[in-house]
Automatic annotation (TrEMBL):
<dbReference type="InterPro" id="IPR014710">
    <property type="entry name" value="RmlC-like_jellyroll"/>
</dbReference>
<keyword id="KW-0413">Isomerase</keyword>
<dbReference type="InterPro" id="IPR027449">
    <property type="entry name" value="KduI_N"/>
</dbReference>
<keyword id="KW-0479">Metal-binding</keyword>
<dbReference type="GO" id="GO:0008697">
    <property type="term" value="F:4-deoxy-L-threo-5-hexosulose-uronate ketol-isomerase activity"/>
</dbReference>
<dbReference type="InterPro" id="IPR021120">
    <property type="entry name" value="KduI/IolB_isomerase"/>
</dbReference>
<dbReference type="GO" id="GO:0042840">
    <property type="term" value="P:D-glucuronate catabolic process"/>
</dbReference>
<feature type="binding site">
    <location>
        <position position="194"/>
    </location>
    <ligand>
        <name>Zn(2+)</name>
    </ligand>
</feature>
<dbReference type="InterPro" id="IPR007045">
    <property type="entry name" value="KduI"/>
</dbReference>
<comment type="function">
    <text>Catalyzes the isomerization of 5-dehydro-4-deoxy-D-glucuronate to 3-deoxy-D-glycero-2,5-hexodiulosonate.</text>
</comment>
<feature type="binding site">
    <location>
        <position position="243"/>
    </location>
    <ligand>
        <name>Zn(2+)</name>
    </ligand>
</feature>
<dbReference type="GO" id="GO:0008270">
    <property type="term" value="F:zinc ion binding"/>
</dbReference>
<dbReference type="Pfam" id="PF04962">
    <property type="entry name" value="KduI"/>
</dbReference>
<comment type="similarity">
    <text>Belongs to the KduI family.</text>
</comment>
<keyword id="KW-0862">Zinc</keyword>
<dbReference type="GO" id="GO:0045490">
    <property type="term" value="P:pectin catabolic process"/>
</dbReference>
<dbReference type="GO" id="GO:0019698">
    <property type="term" value="P:D-galacturonate catabolic process"/>
</dbReference>
Length: 276
């Protein structure tokens, strides 16, 4: 488990490209038959990737979180961004297709991951935050969450947003999670950009061709920077940072938040004409 310590906006002007990538970009989440994890001290979120190929992979108990088992005092949303696979939670197995989501509540002891086809392995992306109570483990099939159509083809940001874990959907302590898919011909996501000082957020980009990239904008609205992001990579977005971007090809992304509240629309928009 990597450690990523919290940062402040005052640090951004002094960071070069390598430093920005080291602090905010998670590049190697999916490694065959391993669990790769990052602990960010922004709201004490854990990001993890699991890609089972030749065997079933169990979620370990990381010494960095000082608990008897991973979900001892945590919850998580898990989205499959690869081929079909299964997740087994304390003996109950869930068949998880691409884009589907499983919420795992506090108290789950044994969690394992398997791919249905090793030639097209599943890639499970996990977003976890501390939890103060237990909500039931709940599965949501891709496309059956709360669907919102946003944007417009004229502005190249027409997109379908599936809300899975949120205040009016799957219950959680603080995790909010969903999947957004850009329509063909649209490249911009999350426009206008916004911040929400009450919650951190992370984006996991997927369904992006190997030779394509996302130009992800981050930083304060008056002091933006960019990251070039490939398929299967995640961006840690502190509460003070904008988060938006555009791609050189169509793509999808998993968005997930944790912090003060679960209101999806609690955001402070920033018109692009005011960004620098």
């Amino acid at each position: 488990m990597q450690q990523r310590y919290a940062t402040s906006p005052e640090q951004i002007p002094g960071m070069d490209t390598a430093e920005l990538r080291r602090r905010y970009l998670v590049e190697d989440l999916f490694v065959a038959d391993e669990v790769q994890a990052v602990y960010t001290h922004h709201d004490r979120v854990v990001l993890a990737g699991v890609q089972p190929v030749a065997r079933t992979v169990a979620l370990p108990t990381f010494p960095e979180i000082r608990s008897e088992f991973f979900f001892s005092h945590r919850e998580a949303g898990i989205v499959n961004v690869g081929g079909r696979g299964t997740i087994t939670v304390d003996g109950t197995t869930y068949d998880v297709g691409t884009g589907s989501c499983l919420y795992v509540g506090r108290g789950a002891r044994e969690v394992t991951f398997t791919s249905a086809d090793g030639a097209a392995p599943a890639r499970f992306y996990l977003f976890s935050a501390p939890a103060h109570t237990a909500y039931p483990t709940t599965f949501v099939e891709a496309g059956t969450g709360n669907v919102r159509e946003l944007g417009d083809g004229v502005t190249s940001n027409r997109r379908t947003l599936n809300q899975y874990i949120h205040e009016n959907g799957v219950r959680s302590c603080q995790v909010v999670m969903g999947v957004t898919t850009l329509h063909e011909g649209s490249m911009w996501n999350t426009m206008p950009a916004h911040t929400h000082d009450r919650r951190m957020e992370a984006y996991l980009y997927f369904d992006l061709p190997a030779d394509a990239r996302i130009v992800h904008l981050m930083g304060e609205p008056s002091q933006t920077r960019h990251l070039l992001v490939a398929d299967g990579q995640a961006v840690i977005s502190p509460s003070w940072s904008v988060h938006c971007g555009f791609g050189s090809a169509s793509y999808s992304f998993v968005w997930a938040m944790a912090g003060e509240n679960q209101s999806f629309d609690d955001m402070d928009g920033v018109p692009i004409a005011e960004m620098r």
